[in-house]
Write a structure and sequence with these properties.
single chain; 206 residues; 15% strand; globular; disordered C terminus
Length: 206
Amino acid sequence: MYGYIQGLRHFAVVGRSGTGKSSLINAFRGLTNNDPEAARVGVNETTADVTRYPDPRNPKCVWYDVPGAGTLNIPDWQYFKDQGIYMFDAVIVLYADRFTSTDIALLKTCRNCSIPTFIVRSKSDQYIRNIRRDSGYETDPEDNQSRFTPGFVRAEEKARDKFINETTADVKKNLEAAGLRPKRVYLVSRSVMMKVVSWFLFDFLL
């Protein structure tokens, strides 16, 4: 039903509604959200069924956009079984605002089924920008040199460090409370991920 092919790597991106699963899959595939072959994105949950997306840059990888967990239509404990997550080679548990009991439930079930998992926090650039603004540095330049001034750079670095430290500590605390082993959390944004994918392809072709 999901187009599983022996020998390929099948990756599922799961998590609560609105965390940016579709955008992350598009970035991994090197596509913009407006590309004709891109996963559909929106403010509300736009993925009704598990959707398969071959990777145009790596034919051995297949990405799956999974409907949001924790919604009224998908109870937490049924999510893993109903969406067939047990069939994937690895699962990316994606969250944005808060690391919740839904994410913990997914990690526990994957652990019980010996499925490798990765914890990823999306929209990191937005949160870093908000922290910087809350610290009193309101300037958010886009097309001028002021973003390279020492004041802006220091404010950006402080906001970035605070975001990384708070996120890491929060995930560690929640994993320990749930009886799970410590795991690294990856902090990403769609725009940066697109650049990384493009650089990787350029180096590979060289």
